Structures are given as structure tokens and as C-alpha cells.
Amino acid sequence: MNAKLSLRGVRKRFGDLEVCKGIDLDVAEGEMVCLIGSSGSGKSTLLRCMNLLEPIDDGEIWLDGVDIAEPGLDPQPIRQRIGIVFQSYNLFPHMSAVENVMLAPRRTKGLSRADLMPRISQLFEKFGLADRMQHFPDQLSGGQQQRVAIIRALAMEPEMMLFDEITSALDPELVGEVLDVLRELRQQGMTMVLATHEMGFARELADKVCFLDAGMILEQAPAEQLFSAPKEERTKAFLARVL
Length: 243
Description:
The structure is a single chain. About 40% of the residues lie in helices and about 25% in strands. By secondary structure, it is an alpha/beta fold. It has a 6-stranded mixed β-sheet with strand order 6-7-8-3-9-10, with helices on both faces. It has a 4-stranded antiparallel β-sheet with strand order 2-1-4-5, with helices on one face. Strand 7, helix 6 and strand 8 form a beta-alpha-beta unit.
């Protein structure tokens, strides 16, 4: 299986603190990879490095065989190809849901509302929000706002998606509706990397699970294998605490 995205020896520091310590990871086309680990283990920073929101200090990041971490490379085209959704929805409060979604493709691709509306309406329909397109963020529940944030990322037609703890700010009863969106994307074959605390979801759907500890991938394996028979003591201790 050819890797869509490959990380080799990726290091990232903030001052004296090294948050990613030489990370190697391959993500195949159409694969769902879940990153698990305690807060502060480096999951969010690693995701931000993958689409160049954070410049790396050392190492290589290969997207379809091209090293995108080369110094001096314009990160903007890469970010259009690798979408990212955060735990805070970051929707503009003065814009309706559909205006929030249209903003980036109109600016970056020069498309008109008329060009975009058929496809964007379809996305709202697919994720159960057809009747919420004209609502403003404060008229939507947390789960609905998070789904709008996902639709906004998908409107850019990315080749792969990164999700950073997208359910952690939600009330428990709203988590399911956001995870259903990820299930849907999984069925469509979207390449995805998720940092998540939802262990049941990771076990059920991930092709591969990576356990991060202190800025390193300590263990990675197919989901069922990592959850039922982890090899590393630190992995066992973490899972004993969260399962």
C-alpha cells in the first residue's frame, strides 16, 4: 500500500521543550489512523505539523512522494489538500452556517455562490443539517456547530483530513452525531488522522492506532491488536486508566 503521507524523523520544539521527538509515521490512502495518549503527549502538535500549520525543526513530511516540509515551500496549497478541524469550531458568529462554509472556497478558488451552492447544499444534506444552513452559530448546538466546521473543511475538497479532539468540547449526548460524520467519511474512503479520547470509536473504526507518550510514538498497531494485546508497559498503563 502506497503511503499518502509519510513522516520521517519529525521534530518540533517550542523553546526548550521538544514536543515531537523524531516521529515516523505512514498513512496509506483511504486509511484511518487514530492517535491516542495523555494530554501533552504531542498529538495536537503532530497534527498541526502534518499540514504545516507548525513548521517542523527537523525531519521530512512526504505527501504523495513530495517532501512538503522543505524550507521556503508555500504552505497554502498544502493546507488546501490536507484539511484540519479543531475542537473549537472557530465559526464566524456574524455569518450564517452556509456563509461560514463558503468563505474559504470563494476566497482561495475564486468561485461564486452559484458555483458552490449545489455541492455545499449536498454536504449539509448528507450530514443532516439541510434545515440549518441559514442559521447563525449561536442558533446551533455544539454538535451542529462541529458538523458545520467539518463541512467547511470538506468544502475545500481536501485529499485527506486531520481531526484534533473534535468531540472533547461537546456534551456527551452530542458526541455520537459528530462520530457518525467520521463514520460516513470512513465509508467514502477519506484518508484521515484523528487525535481522539474516544477509545471505543478508535477500536471500532481505525485501521491503525498510535499511542503517543512524551512526544514519541511508543507503539502502533492495528486497532484490535493494540487494544487487546498492547506490547509496551506504558500503553498497558494508559489503556488500563481510560478503558
